[in-house]
Amino acid sequence: MEGAWEIAFVFFQVWLSVIVGLIMLPAMFGVSLGFTDIYIKVLVKILEWATLRIQRGQKEQPTLPSQSANGIIEKDDGSMEEEIGELRRSHPKNLAGGDFTLCDAFYFCKKGIENIVEDQVTQRFTSEELASWNLLTRTNNNFCYISLRLTIIWGLGVFIRYCILLPLRITLAVIGLSWLVIGTTLVGLLPSSNVKNWLSDLVHITCYRICARGLSATIHYHNKENRPKKGGICVANHTSPIDIVILANDGCYAMVGQVHGGLMGVIQRSIVRSCPHVWFERSEMKDRHAVAKRLKDHIADKNKLPILIFPEGTCINNTSVMMFKKGSFEIGGTIYPVAIKYDPQFGDAFWNSAKYNMVSYLLRMMTSWAIVCNVWYLPPMTRQDGEDAVQFANRVKSAIAHQGGLVDLSWDGGLKREKVKESLKEEQQKMYSSMIVGSDFFEASVGPA
Amino acid sequence: MGSRASSLLREEDIEEIKKETGFSHSQITRLYSRFHSLDKGENGALSREDFQRIPELAINPLGDRIINAFFPEGEDQVNFRGFMRTLAHFRPVEDNEKNKDPTSGEPLNSRANKLLFAFRLYDLDRDDKISRDELLQVLRMMVGVNISDEQLGSIADRTIQEADTNGDMSISFSEFTKVLEKVDVEQKMSIRFLH
């Protein structure tokens, strides 16, 4: 009996020293030992082999449905005027005037059916479909047995991910978060000074680095010269809560958000002790002027860290950028846009909050292969003369979408939960009315025929 | 996205749908994935609310009429078979289908059936006639508040005058077909499905 306990104890000691020595210490100094790189390289080779094997399997068994990441249909991109104009061309011209024809309905009908089969918005709120299976059960759409070797590798993958990587990652996450809470509380006891700021930055970055290791995150930063500076506002596209860890690995930011209870609340309260973050009570969030004022005050102080804001307001699945809420663009100050693009091959980072709660989401993250992403820092932007907040927001959004290779949509991310505004339908009706009224209006003013 | 969706669709069902609608095997499985993702209640059928959740459809002036076309008279749930049957109207017309054996009945995506689909968008009470009142209602859906009642009324009158050949002040399906005989219905009421 005692022997078993001793062995367990030794094992535990070895485990801890591995973690501290090989992961925590390098994280503190920002040094990488290269294990993750080797891991990723091996993974890439295995996934490439798996893709080829699946493609070969599909050729041999033609009844297997092939996964294609293309859409279901091919759409025409004509405008309302073009399409209805074409429809009417084949219809005998109505000499009495009045531009309505019965075939106008065809346009709306076809558009409607196209949108039922495939639309631009609802697909953004579920995970992206992969072009080829990446050996994770969860991305498995049409599992059909292909070969023994593939199944063995998949089984091995399950074992490695759940029995080796998961405990490792959970340990790291726990250590990272507790260090964050303890470290920032300790730093918070110091009087305000440059030393305090420097220590606060160090504690924050170390903890985020440990958390990043806890997800096997490989992040490539591009254009570091454009990194957000103090007194500015950093805006980025939002895919998951992990975005914060990704960005905070390379710089220190002031977070903005609602006050939460529970574990999140504990973390929020302790990190605000060491450096100013902006936390709002639920009631304060309704008052847009109060919110704007607090943010304005924050960026006016050039000693405070740049604010990190996600103007989409909700998580999108990283295939597109949706409407940016204009609030952050009305405050003034320099905007530092950042584009984040995850590589879905190694793990899907999107948080589908309708389907998974935070804990299941984190577990899924920690049992993926890895999180691989690219972060591009874009040159700073400011509002130009004659440009209102909405136009400015759209300009920033286009820049981010262009850099990240994402689709630029003007639809509101809030459509995840809410209905679309009536005014958009009214716009469509207005556009159509102007196509009918034209000559008819003239006819009416001339008098009855 | 639809992780186990395709396994809920049996091969026999796929074969039957294939025969009835003319869609290919892979098109059917992809459309089933889509059906499944729209079915938020996960009960194997879509309600009108499920369709309304598509923003681009919700802002379509004729959105409600199009959604209505999926639901048989008096019902408010549509299953996958019904869904596919309605979508089948929008398959492009292929030449080899004209050679199909005539006993199988007219395919769902024939020119006549496409025109019938459009006719039914206007025919609100399903009595096989488009009355002046029905035409006015549909016009009102399309233009919103932007055109006055009188103007809309004269547009409706003119349209009926133009199409009505038997003097009953309403448009029957054959009159509808005659008025639109020069319109390229096959192309305008078809969607290019990818394989």
TrEMBL record, chain A:
<comment type="similarity">
    <text>Belongs to the 1-acyl-sn-glycerol-3-phosphate acyltransferase family.</text>
</comment>
<feature type="transmembrane region" description="Helical">
    <location>
        <begin position="12"/>
        <end position="35"/>
    </location>
</feature>
<keyword id="KW-0256">Endoplasmic reticulum</keyword>
<protein>
    <submittedName>
        <fullName>Glycerol-3-phosphate acyltransferase 3</fullName>
    </submittedName>
</protein>
<keyword id="KW-0444">Lipid biosynthesis</keyword>
<keyword id="KW-0443">Lipid metabolism</keyword>
<keyword id="KW-1208">Phospholipid metabolism</keyword>
<dbReference type="GO" id="GO:0004366">
    <property type="term" value="F:glycerol-3-phosphate O-acyltransferase activity"/>
</dbReference>
<dbReference type="InterPro" id="IPR002123">
    <property type="entry name" value="Plipid/glycerol_acylTrfase"/>
</dbReference>
<feature type="transmembrane region" description="Helical">
    <location>
        <begin position="143"/>
        <end position="164"/>
    </location>
</feature>
<comment type="pathway">
    <text>Lipid metabolism.</text>
</comment>
<keyword id="KW-0808">Transferase</keyword>
<dbReference type="Pfam" id="PF01553">
    <property type="entry name" value="Acyltransferase"/>
</dbReference>
<keyword id="KW-0472">Membrane</keyword>
<dbReference type="InterPro" id="IPR045252">
    <property type="entry name" value="LPCAT1-like"/>
</dbReference>
<comment type="pathway">
    <text>Phospholipid metabolism; CDP-diacylglycerol biosynthesis; CDP-diacylglycerol from sn-glycerol 3-phosphate: step 1/3.</text>
</comment>
<dbReference type="GO" id="GO:0005789">
    <property type="term" value="C:endoplasmic reticulum membrane"/>
</dbReference>
<keyword id="KW-1133">Transmembrane helix</keyword>
<keyword id="KW-0594">Phospholipid biosynthesis</keyword>
<feature type="transmembrane region" description="Helical">
    <location>
        <begin position="170"/>
        <end position="190"/>
    </location>
</feature>
<dbReference type="GO" id="GO:0008654">
    <property type="term" value="P:phospholipid biosynthetic process"/>
</dbReference>
<feature type="domain" description="Phospholipid/glycerol acyltransferase">
    <location>
        <begin position="232"/>
        <end position="343"/>
    </location>
</feature>
Automatic annotation (TrEMBL), chain B:
<dbReference type="InterPro" id="IPR051875">
    <property type="entry name" value="Calcineurin_B_homologous"/>
</dbReference>
<keyword id="KW-0963">Cytoplasm</keyword>
<keyword id="KW-0519">Myristate</keyword>
<dbReference type="InterPro" id="IPR011992">
    <property type="entry name" value="EF-hand-dom_pair"/>
</dbReference>
<keyword id="KW-0653">Protein transport</keyword>
<keyword id="KW-0449">Lipoprotein</keyword>
<dbReference type="GO" id="GO:0005737">
    <property type="term" value="C:cytoplasm"/>
</dbReference>
<dbReference type="GO" id="GO:0005634">
    <property type="term" value="C:nucleus"/>
</dbReference>
<dbReference type="GO" id="GO:0015031">
    <property type="term" value="P:protein transport"/>
</dbReference>
<keyword id="KW-0813">Transport</keyword>
<dbReference type="Pfam" id="PF13499">
    <property type="entry name" value="EF-hand_7"/>
</dbReference>
<keyword id="KW-0106">Calcium</keyword>
<dbReference type="InterPro" id="IPR002048">
    <property type="entry name" value="EF_hand_dom"/>
</dbReference>
<keyword id="KW-1003">Cell membrane</keyword>
<keyword id="KW-0472">Membrane</keyword>
<keyword id="KW-0539">Nucleus</keyword>
<protein>
    <submittedName>
        <fullName>Calcineurin B homologous protein 1-like</fullName>
    </submittedName>
</protein>
<feature type="domain" description="EF-hand">
    <location>
        <begin position="151"/>
        <end position="186"/>
    </location>
</feature>
<dbReference type="GO" id="GO:0005886">
    <property type="term" value="C:plasma membrane"/>
</dbReference>
<feature type="domain" description="EF-hand">
    <location>
        <begin position="26"/>
        <end position="61"/>
    </location>
</feature>
<keyword id="KW-0479">Metal-binding</keyword>
<keyword id="KW-0597">Phosphoprotein</keyword>
